């Protein structure tokens, strides 16, 4: 554990590792897609709302990384993990000060979120609040969600579908859902079901790929997680079965992409993503041969960037060419 009398300083290199900055490119993909999809599907970009949400969502992503490091430090049982892996104990950081810094970042995100609520609709307060609660209780609380077989089920939809939904929502004239007040204390909850289905369906490939990265991460960390009493989905499936199931995730993402094109939610150009299948399969095979955080886990991130990045790039090119 950290010696409270000799805490280390949070230097810039340590801060960048604390917030897992290199991994934030994965969080940017659904955010960027949501913005360009709003222009493609609904013909409108509100640049003020877009800038506000970009900064707010990025702050939430930074908070999640730093907050998770502190919670993992507090709940860790494995001395080797504390000594060599967890940045809080390895760099002798003050967990309280780190938490204060992370909640300051989250507070900025919340203030920006409230501005967006006033600029759009009250329903955004409930949607954004639910997403932040998932982010906090993913590693906090007596029974964190990360210690249950729920991480893949929750993180993907929240970070994938949720981000695309909000990024599109703040740019739409006709909202997919909203809360409206009338005289006599009458409150209406209006849901445009076709629009909801559209946004969920186009967001599913991003949600699935985000869950794929978490699934691969949990497979790599299975032994360490058991020592730290974290019982994730690969624990319940067993490592062998988890590895066998792993290839189905990116294939499912591509399947929903095809369905979205078939229905007409995405342009036919989006099918060009399938041409990248050889590289996706190559990365899957590398990971299936060996599941190691240092040498093969990056292939899961690569597949996310390939599939998600291709959709963003194709959509941008399509908009400029149209």
Question: What is the quaternary state of this protein?
Answer: single chain
Q: How many DSSP-defined strands?
A: 2
Largest beta-sheet characterization = 2 strands, antiparallel
Structural class: mainly alpha
Rounded mean pLDDT is 88
Q: What count of helical segments does DSSP give?
A: 15
How are the strands of the largest sheet arranged? Answer: 1-2
C-alpha end-to-end distance? 58 Å
Number of domains: 1
If you had to describe this structure to a student in words, what would you say it looks like?
This protein has one domain (about 10-320). The chain is about 70% helix and about 5% strand. It has 15 helices and two strands. The protein has helices at about 10-20, 25-40, 45-75, 80-85, 85-90, 95-120, 125-135, 150-170, 195-220, 220-225, 235, 240-245, 250-265, 275-290, 300-320, and strands spanning about 175-180, 185-190. A two-stranded antiparallel sheet has the order 1-2. Helix 2 crosses helix 8, helix 2 packs antiparallel against helix 9 and helix 6 packs antiparallel against helix 7 (about 125-135). The longest helix has 29 residues, at about 45-75. The model has no long low-confidence stretch (mean pLDDT about 90).
